[in-house]
Specification:
Layout lengths: L8 H13 L5 H34 L6 H9 L1
Helix pairs in contact: 1-2
């Protein structure tokens, strides 16, 4: 089954440029793999965040949750 989607030439050109910059020969193949690419990007971001947290933990030690201190300050 195929579906036709009508988009502006400008939008199509942007999509085509992104597809080509990611190494795809056409927009259709890029869209077929987009979800997988997006998940890989998200995993990479999460990994970098975890790496940063580990570095901060090594440098500064365990940082306690300050929620109670903030509540106390607000109560004053």
């Amino acid at each position: 089954m195929s579906v036709t989607l009508t988009i502006s030439e400008k939008t199509y050109q942007k999509l085509k440029n992104v597809a080509q910059s990611k190494g795809f020969e056409d927009v259709e193949k890029f869209l077929d793999e987009w979800e997988e690419l997006e998940l890989a990007n998200r995993r990479e971001v999460v990994d970098r965040i975890l790496e940063f947290q580990n570095k901060m933990g090594e440098k500064y030690g365990v940082m306690l949750d300050s929620t109670e201190l903030i509540r106390e300050d607000r109560m004053r």
